[in-house]
Predict the structure.
Amino acid sequence: MMRLISQRMQTAVRGSLTVARRNLKPATATGAVRFMSHEVQETDEEFDARYVAYFSRPDIDGWEVRKGMNTLIGMDLVPDPKIIIAALKACRRLNDYALTTRFLEAIKMRAETNKEIYPYVLNEIKPTLDELGISTPEEMGYDKPELALKSVFDVHS
Amino acid sequence: MALLRVIPRKATPSIFMQQVARLHNVERDKIGNRDVVGWGINGMYSYVDHVAFPMPAIRFKETTPEITALRDREKGDWKKLSVEDKKALYRASFCQTYSEMRAPDGRWKSITGWVLFAISASFWIYIWEKLFVYPPMPDTITNLEKRQAQLQRMIDIRVDPIDGLASKWDYENNRWKK
């Protein structure tokens, strides 16, 4: 038992000694392998391309479209108009109109920190809306509550 | 490695997983013939309007012949759908719009009312206890002479001489410092 421990100690110490000796000579130390993690940071373009490709898949189903939209809305960003166009076209392929309105509403909610974003997005996706015959939430009257109680501050006005 | 081998390759569903499956089936019974359309928030067959999760797992309304007819028209050109049709389709899938979800619901009025009610009720309970529950205050609190004697005693034994009671007492002239 003791012999085993002493042998282990010797090998361990010898290892550290040799390392220490090698460190004295920098020329030989440069070849050492570095154990580092290397996380690849996705660029914005790659992110957009990934989601455009996701929504543009011809055999995408309703489950995947909804999951992609839920994920996008959960992120700290407003999706690029490219992604929105791809998502709207995916809704068209699935024949689900309600999804488009819901998605545009969610984007409007996401973009409300900066008033310039939503008009820009609408402007960018306008050709697609016209092409597919999609009404914006404003055109459907959903920018204001349709079935909600009146605000108590407006009741008497 | 021996530990790993204890786990069988192909496990039969555990009792827990069987219960989970049964729960899912029960839920499936509860949603009527609504379409299950997605993952929703956590994969359960539930409808929730939530701004952070625009797409719930099931449609809001059950499938009726009218909505089926509308869905057939939805397969055609969307430009031929009127705004009313579009709204009907939306309301079949979703309950509240985003602006309705975030509209004021006036609930703060009842909350404020109940909070004030609870506060006043606790005051009445305190008054009632003061009258009928607690014994009278001890005379070390109510008797002025005893309290003055207690203060004199505290001055005599020099309570808190740095920045407290005794620091404010002038011991040479036997009075409070000016």
